[in-house]
Task: structure prediction
Amino acid sequence: MATISPRDAQWREQLRASMTAKERTAIPRAKMTELDPAYRITCNEEVNQGLTQEQALVEARRCLDCPDPQCMTGCPVAINIPGFIKNIERGEFAQATAVLKETSALPAVCGRVCPQERQCESRCIYNKMKREPVAIGYLERFAADYTRNHPSGEKIEKPALNGKKVAVIGSGPAGLSFAGDMIKRGYQVTVFEALHQIGGVLKYGIPEFRLPNAVVDVEIDALRALGVEFVKDCVVGKTLSYDDLIADGFDGIFVASGAGLPRFMGVKGENLIGVMSSNEYLTRINLMGAGHEGWDTPVLKGKRIAVIGGGNTAMDSVRTARRMGAEVAMIVYRRSEAEMPARLEEVRHAKEEGVIFNTLANPIEYIGDENGHVTKMLLQRMELGEPDASGRRSPVAIEGAIDEIDVDIVIVSVGVSPNPLIPNSVEGLNISPKGTIVVDDSLQSSIPMLFAGGDIVRGGATVILAMGDGRKAAAAMHEKLS
Amino acid sequence: MCNNRNNDILRNMNKIVEKQYFSEKVVKLVVEAPLIARSRRPGHFVIVICGEKGERIPLTISDADTEKGTITLVVQAIGESTTKICALNEGDFLTDVVGPLGRATKIENYGTVVCSGGGVGVAPLLPIIKAMKEAGNRVVSVLAARTKDLIILEDEVRKYSDEVIIMTDDGSYGTKGLVTQGVESVILREKVDHAVTIGPAIMMKFVAELTKKYNVPTICSLNTIMVDGTGMCGACRVTVDGKTKFVCVDGPEFDAHKVDFGEMMMRLRAYNPIKK
Result:
């Protein structure tokens, strides 16, 4: 796709010439303003406050507008990173967002939740100079937020319909990104969502303090304004079958139903009251409003909470627990902190909020009281052995080193499996042994015109990869349908 | 399939078109839900939300009318949310209804089937009784409740059963005694090939113990705590045959002889101290 802000545009050449590289690299990286930890654990307000306009203008100058920008190779959807940053530098914020939207359906979301330190920012030329990389994520968020808060007032024109219609199953990042691309190409798009809210994991999973629902809703409303239809409370495979969708004349179907099924460890006592999945804990609080005034859904509260796992969902859970009043909130992780898959920022935020990191420890049993409430857990102490298949040093139990720790809530956050609802309900669909839908390079499944992407294919990945799949499937489906 | 189905989907559904009190705390609601009415099978359930800030409550479907596009739910006011649902009137809307969820009952011609239901458990039992009868089974239904007023759907059950045995704790109707006595009386007098039991967990536990003694394969339907009802949260997990299962996607029906009812009853009390 040709970019709307090419590098050889005159304004970009002028901008490059306006400052030397030496001047640019001398600027220190912008510091994100964050809420004070003592305050933020008392509320659900977003921790990262975003860059000010002044900060963004300065940070944008740091980008050297490289001729061969490596940052883009680190982005799963290959956002034209220098293109949007240089638009910020020249003060054209709406144009910056337009560049972002060329490749990313949800820049305000990605600017907040993408692991930039492992993607775009890890490839920034500044790393080679032993300097902190350009704050690409902060700038992405700035542009998207600025445009959201300063709407152009232009009437959104619905794209002309091409007479074909497509169905999307699931309204998470993969589904939304697919829907956005297809509506722009002129398809009639209907998104089916099993829950009563649109947004999937962006709503039920990621907490308000990291990704406010209002940010997600703006993106959903933008899709609505373009003509995307959303049908909530509709479980494809149950309420409607695959055959119903075909009979209804959908020319193509994109399955983006996510990794719905929480994994448990099979540890003794895991079904005691107070032991639950992170999906349950976060869904009760984020989606169902548990713990907030006026909402009917309850959630168990505890003084001592342990979250098992080292990923982003584990961090989201443990930080939520602090906000729900846990006096002791701890991460229990079987490897060391260096191997943790969670974002560095999440780990840092959790520590600032008083979360205890109990690493090289693995639960082997939960013990309950006479009412079946969990009261203790037994942790096997571990040490790092030889590297395993993932390249990380694998944890090995230290014989006899077992700790007994008091807990009243345990949140198991050791991963999810693909939701079997769709795989089980479509005959002839090729499913992997892990339960994911098998797709070819174009993301088409074994059934023609049935495409799939996101966690139902990947088994458990990131928002940006899911969005990338949505885009890719949209392009491939469009090619087949035109 | 009609062409305007898409409009149907997007139309505001979930209207309560009929309400009937079975007893002070047990209400029958007939709800407009054409898609669910069309696709539901015996054994399926729905998740219902009442109010924008309401909780997701699983309710089994007791009947459906595909012509009228309605489903029938029987709700017992036991907590805040079910009390709210029971207070709705004809013409009111449920905020959300999603389903049908869970796996459908395995219906086949077993021979003689004893279907036992306790309290509001008779409601989800009714479509199973009907389907078992239609599959050619001899169906003996055992309905049990504390007292006469709490026996529900008796006429409908009679319509599809070869015989109906009523048991009440206080003897105010039918035979005085427990559901297990009713079931045992059938097993003792004739060959029973299959049993289905739906009701309070403690009742199903005792029926399961009884039928195990006589080697009668038995299916129970579990109504555990749930949040999403689609396999996402695991709040509904139970131990069946030593393995953890999710009631919402693996059930709600299981081999009653293999369910760990003790654990299930314990887990049902998870929210008792913090809920009014």
User: Anything to note?
Assistant: The first strand of chain B starts at residue 16 and ends at 23.
